[in-house]
Amino acid sequence: MIKNIAETLRDYISLAAKKMEQPIWKRTLLGIMAGAFIALGAATSSVAMHSISSVGIARVVGGCIFPIGLMLIVFLGGELFTGDCLAIMACVEKKSSIFDLVKLLFCVWVTNFAGGLIVAILIVNSGELSYSDGMLGAYTIKVAMGKVNISFLQGVCSGILCNIFVCGAVLMASMTKDMIGKILAVFFPIMAFVVGGFEHCVANMYYIPAGIFAAGNVRYAESAMSEYGFTRDELMSLNWQSFFFQNELPVTIGNIIGGMVCIGIVLLILNKKEVEKS
């Protein structure tokens, strides 16, 4: 059985109001879980993509694997920053305050980062980046370098496009109760955003820290320089400052706009009468 969009929005608004009343310890654990799940999807998709020369084919392959992160959140639980941007609907409907929303999103962003960072540390120390004679480590650096070298406008626009897909997937998954329906609802939108190469602030909480750690490894750094043509000075620009200000800041802004405005508020306006009937 599939719920219509008005029912789905009503249920999500009720859920969002409850989220904002969660005890901090629970929100913290759920945020770390979600960040780790997305990071695991990112890490495993990188393994599949790293030796494929065709960008299009590589993204399709990665897009088939990356959705496992959101699937784990949907079935096991987790608070994901990008999906929680939809909680703006509870504020519009006066079920919660803007202050409560800001507290929720701040906590979830920080704890998602903690989860992504934990997985990055585990992956780097697991030896996985040594695959293909260190080429996975070099590829990890390449991905991170690409992300910290986008312009502010690119980051915002790409973030908007990404979270249209992610929030669409979240709502679509909540429209059905059976597992297969939820899997399909998550798989195709998330695959599309990966194939499109759009920017997801939580995924980047794995990709860029993993690249920073990999760049600190002489073997991986030398492979990145020889294979992808990076200079030592360029690799030095891959650091925590470029992570936060050149990628996370604009991408987070874009994700907020994409989730809150393009999906949450627009759908609420289009279905306001039906949503307010109950």
Sum this structure up briefly.
By secondary structure, the protein is an all-alpha fold.
Number of strands: 0
Strand residue percentage? under 5%
- How can the largest sheet be summarized? none
Order of helices and strands: HHHHHHHHHHHHHHH
Which residues form runs of ≥5 with pLDDT under 50?
none
CATH architecture call: Up-down Bundle
Number of helices in the DSSP assignment: 15
The CATH first-level class comes to Mainly Alpha
Secondary structure category: mainly alpha
Look at the structure and name the CATH superfamily. Answer: Glycerol uptake facilitator protein
From the spread of the alpha carbons, the general shape counts as: elongated
Taking the alpha carbons of the first and last residues, their distance comes to 20 Å
Assembly state of the chains shown: single chain
Radius of gyration: 19 Å
In helices, the fraction of residues equals over 70%
Looking at the structure, the CATH topology is: Glycerol uptake facilitator protein
Count of separate structural domains: 1
- Overall pLDDT level: 96
What do you see in this structure?
- With 278 residues, the protein is mainly α.
- The protein has one domain: Glycerol uptake facilitator protein.
- Helix content is 79%, strand content 0%.
- The protein is built from 15 helices and no strands.
- It has helices at residues 5-19, 24-49, 55-65, 68-76, 81-84, 88-92, 98-126, 131-148, 152-174, 179-196, 204-215, 218-228, 232-236, 240-270, 272-275.
- The longest helix is centred in the C-terminal third of the chain and has 31 residues, at 240-270.
